[in-house]
Design goal:
Strand content: 5-15%
Number of strands: 7
Radius of gyration: 32 Å
Structural class: alpha+beta
Largest sheet: 5 strands, mixed
Helix content: 40-55%
Strand order of the largest sheet: 1-2-7-3-4
Number of domains: 1
Order of helices and strands: HEEHHEHEEEHHEH
Distance between the termini: 57 Å
């Protein structure tokens, strides 16, 4: 018997079996890898779409500063209404400005109209965001009222802290109240009255704190937004060291802190891909 010939004849069937098995294994590995890749690709696409939504939202919100009514503070990342508002002492109603008290009704009405235009702009932005954003994103419009450090304290419920809150509350009321009631008739659909609305209006008051603020420097350039430049950190320091002219200058700077900050904050809701899942995605 030719043993060499017999081994040669049995080699090729065994080789074919081995190659067939290896091919089957590789095919299975390819199919599994491809399925896992497509799954990861889908997850990453979801992240990209959500990221694009967020970028579009912030870009749209930033466009508010192209108007004459708002400015962006890059230090504190807030939008401020640029309209100068000075209330009568201890007042919070938008219809009781110092201009009203001085009998300058036309100028006071012009201020209120500017505030109305500022509200219309916010409403337009929210409407566009609601139409273009995904259902997983809603919006908070935060109206933050500030107050000056001009002394006012008559108890826990009557002070600059509550005064700043009431000013923000009445700004919201002025924007949302019907025209026949002296309001602007804006924001007719919010989460308060429409469950489908993506917009919720929040009222807040930061009192004598909150940022950004204007600080009196006592120098030729009297106003700064840096607290380190403030000449009189407390009102007691004003009483002790300020001259009459100095006090008037301090007062004129402080009264400019009777204003509002507006923030439009996107809230990311039920995004299917959580951060923990994203961290586990192997993109190597």
């Amino acid at each position: 018997m030719d043993i060499g010939r017999k081994n040669k004849e049995s080699f090729w069937p065994s080789y074919v079996d081995i190659m067939t098995t290896l091919f089957a294994v590789m095919l299975i590995l390819f199919a599994v890898s491809y399925a896992r890749f497509k799954k990861k690709e889908g997850e990453l696409e979801m992240l990209v779409n959500d990221y694009k939504d967020i970028i579009n939202i912030y870009s749209k919100v930033d466009s508010i500063d192209k108007s004459p009514f708002y400015a962006y503070d890059s230090l504190y990342l807030k939008h401020t209404i640029t309209i100068s508002i000075a209330y009568q002492d201890r007042e919070y109603d938008i219809h009781k400005l110092k201009l009203d008290q001085a009998g300058q009704t036309e100028q006071a009405n012009a201020k209120r109209d500017s505030i109305r235009q500022a509200g219309i702009l916010v409403q337009q932005i929210i409407k566009e965001l609601e139409e273009k954003s995904s259902d997983n994103i809603k919006f908070l419009v935060v109206i933050e009222g500030q107050s000056s450090k001009i002394p006012f304290y008559e108890g826990e419920w009557k002070n600059n802290e509550t005064l700043s809150f009431l000013r923000a509350k009445y700004l919201k009321h002025y924007w949302t109240a019907p025209v026949e009631e002296g309001g602007c008739g804006l924001f007719k659909k919010t989460s308060e009255n429409d469950i489908k609305s993506k917009c919720e209006i929040i009222v807040a008051g930061s009192g004598e704190g909150g940022v950004p603020r204007f600080y009196y420097t006592g120098k030729d350039d009297q106003i700064s937004i840096n607290p380190a430049d403030e000449k009189y950190p407390t009102f007691n320091a004003v009483k002790m060291y300020a001259t009459s002219d100095d006090y008037n200058s301090w007062y004129n700077v402080e009264i400019q802190n009777q204003r509002f900050l507006i923030n439009i904050i996107p809230i990311i809701g039920n995004i299917n891909l959580k951060k923990a899942q994203f961290d586990n995605i192997d993109i190597d």
